[in-house]
Amino acid sequence: MKKIIAVFFIIAGITLGFGQDKNKSVSFEVKGNCWMCKNRIEKTAIKMQGVKFASWNADTKVFKAIIDERKCTISSVQKKIAEVGHDTGDFKSTDEVYNNLPACCQYRNPESSNMDHGKH
User: H/E/C letters for each residue in the chain?
Assistant: First the structure.
């Protein structure tokens, strides 16, 4: 009887272990303009524990990542990106942080879209 119970717990443990999908692909909008924004957004995200991949497209404003949901959440990634000056779906950067961005990165200013945003 003890062997049957032990086998049951082993099988249950294996099933639960494989049942957890720790890596999840996520995407959401992040405001920004240029290659400096791209570097700032991606570096901020990839430094977070649990973020395995991060990519932001300046043309579409779409941020894509692969995260380990046991270590971080979509909200925590969005919040961290907002903390460095870029508005996300659920979090807005503070005016103080936003105003310290380079002029070409100040996406709230309509004039910034007319600046040279050379791709580097």
Answer: CHHHHHHHHHHHHHHHHHHCCCEEEEEEEECCCCHHHHHHHHHHHHCCCCEEEEEECCCCCEEEEEEECCCCCHHHHHHHHHHCCCCECCCCCCHHHHHCCCHHHCCCCHHHHHCCCCCC
Give residue for tokens 């959440």. Answer: 73
Q: What is the pLDDT of residues 48-84, one digit of tens each?
A: 999 999 999 999 999 999 999 999 999 999 999 999 9
Phi, psi of 3 (to 5 degrees): -65, -40
| Residue 119 one-letter amino acid | K
Region 22-44: mean pLDDT is: 96
Do 78 and 91 touch, CB atoms closer than 8 A?
yes
User: In this predicted model, which residue has the larger pLDDT, 63 or 119?
Assistant: 63
- Per the CB < 8 A criterion, the answer to whether 115 and 103 are in contact is yes
Q: Sheet of 62-68: strands edge to edge?
A: 23-29, 62-68, 51-56
